[in-house]
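Entry for the shared binder. Reason: the reviewer on the internal report wants the predicted structure included alongside the sequence.
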Amino acid sequence: MTAFVLGNDLPYHRLGITASRKAIGNSVQRNRAKRVLRETFRLSEPSLSKLVNRYDWVLNAKAGVLSITTTQAKVEFEDILQGVAEREAEDGRLLTA
C-alpha cells in the first residue's frame, strides 16, 4: 500500500481509500481491498492515538493487498505509522532547538 498523509486541524484522523480497476481488478476485488484497508486502519487506532497531531490518510491499494491477511496489512501500516511518528519527533526537536 501507499499512504499519503496530510495534517488536519480536527480532533480525529480521517481515512480515504483508493482502489483502481487497473491496479486491483473487478469490483469484488476492489471492495475486498477497501475492506482490508479500512479494518487495518481501525485496528491501528491505539497507535494512531499516540501521534501528536491528527492527519488525513489516503491509502492507495496495490494488487498485493488481496493476497495478504489483515494482520499482515496492519504490520505494513504500523511501519508507515512509525515513519510518521519519527517525522513528528524530528519536527519537534527542530522546533525546540
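Summary line for the report: Residues 18 and 60 are 5 Å apart (CA to CA).
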